[in-house]
């Protein structure tokens, strides 16, 4: 499943986390209204479910994408990549329901699953009906193409392009698109650059587009030279239009478009190589 990231006070929160919080609040109110107050109080002794749910969600995602995490084990503990499986998170809840003998306790467990499923359905429906593509219209980007020689990093920034043209080209080639908004002063942006470069060099079914936010050409050249980085698609957003048009307030922010040209969400915060590989897999629609 694809989840957007919601930015609150400059901090990115995965929609999945907000869905879980909202589901718990709705569930608690609904259970009390249905007369399950005593059973709710009994749940206070089973708070371990939250920890196990979190662990199952993380390791479920890792197992689903083990081929990537096996190549980069350090990514396993980097939960900032927001790799969680909602299906795996439900496993301890189902086990808990199965071993509970009291009928009403089982009922409220089933009630929670119903509430959670309903909230997820509403959120996913809202995401699918939102027309984000219009936010890309008339965004001019300054080309900053790089080529490396034996001695220096050269740039060609003689023209401007429309982002919509880049997306259309990727669609015609049946490729997914990863749009990364970044700046050299941003620590997580700097940390994730090697992962982005590695994914770019190993995937031919996706296009990695880096769009720098309002920095000078000299600053960008120095950053890439200093870190020995080369990307095929680097552009300058001198007006910060991508951040403003998409209502984003934090860097790095990564936007996902599948190989059919459909918007599939936003990730705010640092990415790992493993999580990015897994995301690209989900963006390839057969």
UniProtKB/TrEMBL annotation:
Keyword Glycoprotein: no
InterPro entries: AhpC/TSA, Thioredoxin-like_sf, Thioredoxin_CS, Thioredoxin_domain, Thioredoxin_ResA/DsbE_sf
Domain Thioredoxin, chain residue ranges per copy: 135-285
Annotated signal peptide: none
Statement: the UniProt record of this protein carries the keyword Transmembrane: yes
TM annotation in the entry: 6-27, 48-70, 82-99, 108-126
Name of the molecule in the record: Thiol-disulfide isomerase or thioredoxin
Natural source organism: Thorsellia anophelis DSM 18579
């Amino acid at each position: 499943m694809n989840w957007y990231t919601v930015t609150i006070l400059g901090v990115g929160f995965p929609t999945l986390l907000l869905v879980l919080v909202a589901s718990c609040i709705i569930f608690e109110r609904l259970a009390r209204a249905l007369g399950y107050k005593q059973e709710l109080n009994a749940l206070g002794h089973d708070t371990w479910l939250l920890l196990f749910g979190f662990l199952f969600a993380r390791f479920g995602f890792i197992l689903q994408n083990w081929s990537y995490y096996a190549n980069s084990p350090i990514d396993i503990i980097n939960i900032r990549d927001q790799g969680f499986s909602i299906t795996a998170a439900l496993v301890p809840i189902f086990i808990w329901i199965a071993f509970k003998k009291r009928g009403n306790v089982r009922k409220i467990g089933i009630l929670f699953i119903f509430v959670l499923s309903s909230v997820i359905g509403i959120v996913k429906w809202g995401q699918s009906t939102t027309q984000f593509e219009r936010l890309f219209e008339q965004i001019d980007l300054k080309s900053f193409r790089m080529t490396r020689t034996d001695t220096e990093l050269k740039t060609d920034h003689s023209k401007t392009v429309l982002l919509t043209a880049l997306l259309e080209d990727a669609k015609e080639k049946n490729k997914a698109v990863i749009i990364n908004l970044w700046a050299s002063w941003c620590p997580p942006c700097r940390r994730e650059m090697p992962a982005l470069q590695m994914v770019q060099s190993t995937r031919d079914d996706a296009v990695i587009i880096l769009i720098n936010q309002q920095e000078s050409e000299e600053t960008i050249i120095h950053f890439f030279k200093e870190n020995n980085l080369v990307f095929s698609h680097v552009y300058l957003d001198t007006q910060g239009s991508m951040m403003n048009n998409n209502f984003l307030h934090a860097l790095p922010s990564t936007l996902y478009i599948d190989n059919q040209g459909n918007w599939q969400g936003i990730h705010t915060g640092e990415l790992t190589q493993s999580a990015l590989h897994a995301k690209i897999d989900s963006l390839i629609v057969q």
